[in-house]
Amino acid sequence: MRIEKEQIEQHNNRLAAKHKRAFDYISEDISEVESIINKLQQFQIAIPSWALGTGGTRFGRFSGKGEPGNLEQKIEDVGLLHALNRSSGAISLHIPWDIPQNAEQIKSLASSYGLQFDAVNSNTFQDQEGQEHSYKFGSLHHVDPKVRKQAVQHNIDVINHGIALGSKALTVWLADGSSFPGQLNFREAFQNTLESLKEIYAHLPEDWKLFVEYKAFEPHFYSMTIGDWGQSLLLATKLGSKAYTLVDLGHHLPNANIEQIVSLLLMEGKLGGFHFNDSKYADDDLTAGSIKPYQLFLIFNELVEGMDASGLDHATGLGWMIDASHNLKDPLVDLLQSVDAIMIAYAQALLVDRVALKEAQRDNDIVKAQQILQDAFRTDLRAIVAEARLRDGAALDPIGLYNELSVREELIKERGDNTVATGL
Ligand SMILES: [Mn+2]
Q: How far is the CA of 267 from the centre of ligand 1 (A)?
């Protein structure tokens, strides 16, 4: 299914008067409104290929209907999202769940929807059919060099798939860890991981980045070999200038100050990418901004401040991706909500009066500092985010139009109601 330009225009025309009232009202008090809209138009958030099907929990999975059964249909789904919001112009593939059989065909299909290929993701957290060595006790950190070699080769294969598609980054997340004291020698596990990553790094093209993702716990509960940003930064620093830390919002212990982590990684020039989701406890995979929207804003506040301080382009300086796979909502609606929450938080961070904040910090005026941040957070910028969409030819109300066009029903007609997204 493709959404036609006329369908979006008709929808926007119906909402035009109401939108104009809201936009004029909020614009009146914001002098930099044009610059904010311009930055919002540039900003794109990659959609991972595994987020298009209904996720499960360890207790089971309740499949949705009309889910994409192959890579072409996943690209079609991201194309639908991008048509509705013009902010989801990239797709992040997971190998081996989504191996492109014909890279040129896949590339041209993606570009027909205006999509590019973001970071490619390797998978050494589960065994694949026909695989010689098992990852039950880890991959890049494994005590057996034969297992490490197999995992390194897989990552090299993933880089090669990425090159064929025009990707520019490899994301490595490892499930390696231990669940019982004594199971691992921590130093050996770290050294083995480093040596394996060095072999992978050696195969990176010149203009590529390697993102080292960390996670505090799960699937292991005593130690994770890359468990926090310190361990990731240590690896990225030892690897070299193409290696960076990747921050996934759900991969921290409860109440971790993620905005501070982001700030220091940016200071060190070692923040490479970002995985958005929200959580009450840990890796809950909930819609971005659904539980802690103020935290999302505070993170964006540090991102904008830190990127500006180091001269990074907001849209291209870091890799932006959603990493969530929800088990209750229609995955496409969930992604539209996530992208919208991210754009609102970004817009609010752009609104922060940085000169006044600096002054308040210098004067130890903490009341003022809090007011400045909360003024931005409490300003309703939805009409500005909608205006950016309107100017890009997207829908004023993406979820509204998704429902008006009965997109899911259409997909069920096309694909059947007994579908299971591949890879999950
Ligand atoms: Mn992630």
A: 22
Tell whether 292 is covered by a domain. yes
Name the residue range of residue 75's domain: 44-335
Instruction: Give the 3-state secondary structure of residue 288.
Output: coil
The answer, as to whether pTM is greater than 0.90, is yes
Tokens of 89: 């112009």
CA of 94 to the centre of ligand 1 (A): 11
CATH number where 308 lies: 3.20.20.150
pLDDT digits (tens, 9 = 90+) for 13-65: 999 999 999 999 999 999 999 999 999 999 999 999 999 988 888 888 888 89
Rounded to the nearest angstrom, the distance between the alpha carbon of 253 and the centre of ligand 1 is 15
Q: Is residue 202 part of a domain?
A: yes
Within-domain flag for 370? no
Question: Is-contact 416 66, C-beta < 8 A?
Answer: yes
* Tens-digit pLDDT profile for residues 81-121: 999 999 999 999 999 999 999 999 999 999 999 999 999 99
Question: Ligand 1: distance of its center to the CA of 400 in Å?
Answer: 29
**Position 109 in a domain:** yes
Q: How far apart are CA 9 and CA 1, in angstroms?
A: 17
Distance from the alpha carbon of residue 323 to the mean position of ligand 1, in angstroms: 5
- C-alpha 213 – ligand 1 centre gap (Å): 7
Ligand 1 geometric centre to CA of 219 (Å): 13
Helices (H), 229-330: 229-239, 258-267, 293-309
